[in-house]
Design a protein that fits this description.
By secondary structure, this protein is an all-beta fold. It is 0% helix and 45% strand.
Length: 269
């Protein structure tokens, strides 16, 4: 029967606590119970030995000493359970998971680390998108155009709308980068490239000059990139706009080459 040595499991001075086998199910667990009060369990080292450790060691064996199932901790809330432990069915990867119905290791990964310490956060918001087609005559005579990114390379946590706009799933600090390539810029006097968030419009302005425009292949082109690091509240949005001035009409094009134009971002901290 599972249990705890009273010498190393302490409920607090003067506490009245029961430790007994679970009789409400068949999971062979041990329950801690105290009526109308929180149960506090403390693991402590020997008071007379300054070099001793205080630790909780969870081991699972299959009877041969080789180790059998998974070893994990479970935390139950009102609607969700959280788990952390080692998944022996997946190369001994350490996982932090949660789920409303599943249990370890079939719950949803929040974080995982392999035995070499390489850590991934598979549900942290991150996306990378491109335009699917070249869009013609979008600006040049002052029109403000919101760039369409309708080809998704990845959208972890599904926070990009598939067209133009990212919506922050939670408050935090986000990193965004956008690269764009315009063609048929002609004699444009100004091109303004913006990453627009709910809080701030981050402007990247260029006036016509020899270091800005490339006349290779008989096509006048303009390429630029911008990276920002900003605060966002849950529900805030981010998208990219372009505005050209100085032409007689909107004759500037947005190119669709993946290596030249993209929009990406992620929740950093």
């Amino acid at each position: 029967m599972p249990g705890f040595d009273n010498d190393v499991m302490h409920a607090g001075v003067g506490a009245s606590i029961g430790v007994f086998p679970n009789t409400s199910g068949s999971d062979n667990s041990t329950e801690f119970d105290r009526d109308c009060a929180a149960v506090v369990s403390t693991v402590f080292n020997s008071a007379g030995d300054l070099g001793s450790d205080a630790k909780i060691d969870i081991k699972v064996n299959d009877g041969s000493g080789a180790g059998g199932g998974n070893s994990y901790l479970s935390y139950s809330g009102p609607s969700q359970k959280f788990f952390q432990g080692v998944d022996k069915t997946d190369s001994n990867i350490y996982k932090l998971q949660n789920s409303a119905i599943a249990t370890f290791p079939s719950a949803d990964d929040i974080m995982n680390s392999d035995v070499d310490g390489l850590v991934k956060f598979p549900r942290t918001s991150a996306f990378f998108v491109n335009p699917l087609i070249t869009r013609l005559n979008v600006t040049g005579d002052g029109t403000l155009f919101t760039i369409i990114f309708d080809s998704t390379q990845f959208d972890q946590d599904f926070n990009f709308d598939g067209t133009s706009t990212f919506t922050a799933p939670r408050s935090g600090r986000y990193v965004f980068t956008s690269v764009f390539l315009m063609e048929e810029t002609g004699n444009a006097t100004r091109i303004q490239f913006n990453i627009v968030t709910t809080g701030i419009n981050f402007q990247h302005l260029r006036i016509r000059g020899s270091t800005v425009y490339d006349n290779s292949s008989n096509v006048e082109r303009f390429q630029k990139n911008q990276t920002i690091f900003c605060n966002m509240d849950a529900g805030d949005t981010a998208f990219v706009t372009i505005q050209g001035d100085g032409l007689a009409a909107d004759t500037e094009d947005i190119h669709n080459a993946r290596r030249f134009i993209s929009f990406n971002g992620f929740l950093n901290c």
